[in-house]
């Protein structure tokens, strides 16, 4: 029996029309070197229509790809809506990729047009001759004359181009399963691979972002979106905000701790999202120059494991709860969110909050051991996490890396355990697991424990070869400014916190943990430094 219900398409054109009309007065604030620049969602709707008209006038048709090489700002947001709503495909280019990777992803996606921020023109200019399919570059917030384009590429001013366009667009009817946007993985563990989101997957994911067991976005929120729009779609916050009318605060290129503190003071956001390293930096800034941040009802932290010490400091010193979440570019990215279950209080609630979180109804999960067996959810059995669902990738663009997918499941490459009530605890990435004498040591657990020492700003743990045990942990420590601590003291500190056989015997002190293009610990580079003998290691 077929249902008697309508089959309305979950398209981003509908989302844009809804948000710009119903939430016409909600605001997008972009931070600039002159302070805040504001526009309403009604303005955003008109600018998105102008941009769509402009792209049509440049010959963009069908599902052609339009790249963005932008900070988080109002122009990027207009592109987020205009490009998918007109039926084309938004490709957010990661401005921090290595040059060869940038060339690779733009050519692989066959980008026809690139929208670039004025401040990023020099960075793009270097690679532009290598971008084989690009025919037009649109410069926003800058002077197009600064770009020397190779022959065959036309350069336009965003403002001039849009000024000449009508502020309405006849948005086409779009099949909700067609491509809306694409994002390449940041390549922490290999070559970037393209994930292509559909209108439907983005719509459903946006609903989840707003749900009470998730980020709880509402019209009362002013959400500071620090996680870049080129990184896993800013964790879905821009689309979710449009759905419910939450106002957005875009930090543009002002991502260092000091300007972030200024943005907090000026705009008093109620919500924010960023990777742990951003919050670590902000914490040091707040310690140096205290300010009230209690206007934040909550901040969401993911992308890497959030150290419990960071959660405690934020909550106990500044009254701001951290909500820990797990996800991947491949999962749109919301996979699990760590809200404790009803009734959990005190220490028990904290134990839940440290986990990577609970799976929502739309994300199915299972753990697989080395022999392919499905493991129980007993919070003990450790295996590789696999997930499936309507906003989880089922393939990469062009069929890259097919072994990541099987029987309708995505192999995440993450290793962990799941509790009977559906909370995920990750112990490692498959490639970062340390195998010592046949037993696994969790690099994440060790890092968190070392980082709970007051003198430690950051700690990254990698496995290094060992004749007797195969691999043993090496801890790379960054000491907080103005403090000091020795390897002996840290080993002593760990001695009653980790099992004796896990106690690391290799320690090194570094100025900074190398980071990937999206601010995660870059263990590939740390391992390379070690094998090239560039680290000064103390052995016990
Ligand atoms: P890349 O794979 O290039 O790093 P992603 O941003 O897609 O880019 O990274 C997803 C990965 O980040 C996950 O597979 C997981 O290893 C890690 N990750 C994300 N959130 C968390 C978290 N809360 N705790 C631990 N690891 C996380």
From TrEMBL:
Q: Which domain of life does the UniProt lineage start with?
A: Bacteria
Pfam families in the record: AMP-binding, AMP-binding_C
The record's section on PROSITE patterns has: AMP_BINDING (PS00455)
Q: Which residues form the AMP-dependent synthetase/ligase domain?
A: 34-396
Enumerate the UniProt keywords alphabetically: Ligase
**What InterPro entries does the entry give?**
AMP-bd_C (IPR025110), AMP-bd_C_sf (IPR045851), AMP-binding_CS (IPR020845), AMP-dep_synth/lig_dom (IPR000873), ANL_N_sf (IPR042099), ATP-dep_AMP-bd_enzyme (IPR050237)
Q: Which residues does the UniProt record annotate as the domain AMP-binding enzyme C-terminal?
A: 446-520
Keyword set includes ATP-binding: no
Which molecular-function annotations from GO does this UniProt entry contain?
A: ligase activity
Q: Record's PANTHER family? A: LONG-CHAIN-FATTY-ACID--COA LIGASE, MEDIUM-CHAIN-FATTY-ACID--COA LIGASE
Q: By what name is this protein known?
A: Long-chain fatty acid--CoA ligase
Gene source species: Amycolatopsis thermalba
Taxon lineage: Bacteria, Bacillati, Actinomycetota, Actinomycetes, Pseudonocardiales
